[in-house]
Amino acid sequence: MKFKPLADRVLVRPDVQPNVTPGGIIIPGTVQEKPMEGIVEASGPGRYVDGKFVANTVAVGDCVVYGKWSGNEIMVEGEKLMIMEESQILGVVAP
Q1: Where in the sequence is the domain holding 67, given as residue range(s)?
Q2: Which one of 14, 19, 63, 71 has the minimum C-beta count within 10 Å?
Q3: Contact of 62 with 90, CB cutoff 8 Å
């Protein structure tokens, strides 16, 4: 991948939800909820807080949960990904 986040930014691939309910009803893309879970694709080194360097705690490959309105959607190599600060990540999903 040709994208490297800076500071405490994290690049996340949103988990795409199926557009069909278990009952077989098709949900159009315009009413689907924005995903709130994804896989970390790239992570910046960290940031400085009060003169001390604090490294990011999430690593590439972690499955994370983030807020509904967190981050910004960007296009990287023709794919929609999310870029956000590590502080916008609510937690890491254990395997």
Answers
A1: 9-19+30-93
A2: 19
A3: no
